[in-house]
Amino acid sequence: MTDAIPARGGVTVAPTADVDARATIGAGTRIWHLAQIREHAALGRDCNVGRGAYVGPGVVVGDNVKLQNHALVYEPARLGDGVFIGPAAVLTNDEYPRAVTPDGRPKTHADWTAVGVTIGEGAAIGARCVCVAPVTVGRWALVAAGAVVTKDVPDFALVVGVPARRVGWVGRAGRPLTDRGDGVWRCPETGAEYVEIDGRLVEK
């Protein structure tokens, strides 16, 4: 990654990347080899877009987001600040995928309506995860590698498996929280405490 070319506004784009002129890229963002940023996509400041990653038309990406190699983010996805999308993860956009219509005609954009995945602030999507639109992954949630998300994920939830299911809670540091009893959970790294109320976790 040493041969990327800094451009105006502090944006760094590798020579082999394909960034549409109609996309908006925030200062400090780096876009690496063979990545593609489509028309009207909007990336915030200080993002990192890995090799071979794809960002679809009109996708909105917040500040300080990391898209690892070969992550596929299809429109109309919305990613909050500080989101991590792991290598080869996919955010889908078609509820009923078909290449052709029932009469055998190739489908066009007029034949379907794209639905998006929404990822909340600070959440992390592990390597090779699939988020099946339309779903929302809550703030600071952690989706384990290889999981398939088919329903909404609460804030701070740790989900695993196919389909993904909640197996615990995580804090802002990403570490599983320790149950202190009476609905209070504690981060072993930062000491921050959280409270579980009716199946949801909130910061204390």
Task: Write a compact overview of the structure shown.
The protein has strands spanning 5-6, 12-13, 18-19, 24-25, 30-31, 36-37, 42-43, 48-49, 54-55, 60-61, 66-67, 72-73, 78-79, 84-85, 90-91, 118-119, 124-125, 130-131, 136-137, 142-143, 148-149, 157-160, 165-169, 178-181, 184-186, 193-197, 200-203.
Q: What this model shows, in words?
A:
The protein is mainly beta and 204 residues long. It is built from no helices and 27 strands. A 10-stranded mixed β-sheet has the order 1-2-5-8-11-14-17-20-22-23, with no helix packed on it. The protein has a 7-stranded parallel β-sheet with strand order 3-6-9-12-15-18-21, with no helix packed on it. The chain starts with a strand and ends with a strand. It has one domain (5-170): UDP N-Acetylglucosamine Acyltransferase, domain 1 (3 Solenoid). The protein is globular and about 55 Å long. The chain has strands at 5-6, 12-13, 18-19, 24-25, 30-31, 36-37, 42-43, 48-49, 54-55, 60-61, 66-67, 72-73, 78-79, 84-85, 90-91, 118-119, 124-125, 130-131, 136-137, 142-143, 148-149, 157-160, 165-169, 178-181, 184-186, 193-197, 200-203.
Comma- or semicolon-separated keywords:
seven-stranded parallel sheet, mainly beta, globular, 33% strand, ten-stranded mixed sheet, UDP N-Acetylglucosamine Acyltransferase, domain 1, single chain, 204 residues
- Can you tell me the residue ranges where pLDDT is under 50 for at least 5 consecutive residues? none
Q: Which structural class best describes the helix and strand composition? A: mainly beta
- C-alpha end-to-end distance: 42 Å
Number of helices: 0
- Assess the beta-strand content as a share of residues: 25-35%
Biggest sheet: strand arrangement? 1-2-5-8-11-14-17-20-22-23
Please report the total strand number as a whole number. Answer: 27
Order of helices and strands: EEEEEEEEEEEEEEEEEEEEEEEEEEE
Shape, per Cα inertia axes: globular
- At the third CATH level, what is the topology name? UDP N-Acetylglucosamine Acyltransferase, domain 1
The main sheet comes to: 10 strands, mixed
